Amino acid sequence: MENQKKIWDSIAPEWNRFRNKPMLEASMFIDGKKGKILDLGCGSGRHLVKSRSLKFYGVDFSKEMIRLAKINAKKKGIDARFFVSNSHKLPFKDNLFDSAMYIAALHCIPSERFREKSLREFFRTMKKNSKALITVWSKNHIKFVNHPKESTVTWKKNSEELQRYYYLYDKQELRDLLKAVGFKIISIKDDNKNIIAILKKQSTS
In sequence order, which residues have a C-beta less than 8 Å from that of residue 185 and are 6 or more positions away? Predict the structure, then answer.
């Protein structure tokens, strides 16, 4: 994990330059939302949008990504708070967020146990009946169709080749994991690049 933190800290400035447009599904999910929204694995803040009805809470394990996210939020005049934290131990109370996103980050955690713990933390901090968007890379991604499920992707920086960890999910595996955590699955699709899930934290009362 520490090695991955160093890698993401190192690539943060380039990532910020090239990964600065929000994912379409994220923009669609955010539209019309109100209250506190969690952006877990927020990176440098590509999914931040200016909104009078939303307050963003961005979390990432990379301190450099968070530093850049703060700068980007200030430039855009966006109401946001940021936290450097591991995703399996979030610094928030239970039932805090009105909605939540976990976009292209779950698959970067190099441990099955910590991926599940991360989802349970994500679930814990959401309000009852709130909705979430989760996306992961698909095993059917054309770039990885012949790769093992645990894989690395090279990011070239100067003369270095930095190896970013990825776990490649299939749709049924992710569906089973999300149900085990407690989510109601509203929709889940595999577009042969990403698996995209819209979820609800059902009330147990």
Answer: 175, 178, 179, 197, 198, 199
> How many whole angstroms separate alpha carbon 46 and alpha carbon 68?
10
Q: Looking only at Cα atoms, what is the longest distance across the chain? A: 57
State the burial class of residue 59 (Cβ atoms within 10 Å of its Cβ: 0-12, 13-18, 19+).
buried
Task: Note if the pTM is more than 0.90.
Answer: yes
What is the tens place of the pLDDT at every residue in 158-187? 888 999 999 999 999 999 999 999 999 999
- Fill in the amino acid letter for 74: K
Bridge partners of residue 101, in order along the sequence: 39, 133
Q: How many angstroms separate the Cα of 142 from the Cα of each of 18, 147, 204?
A: 21, 10, 40
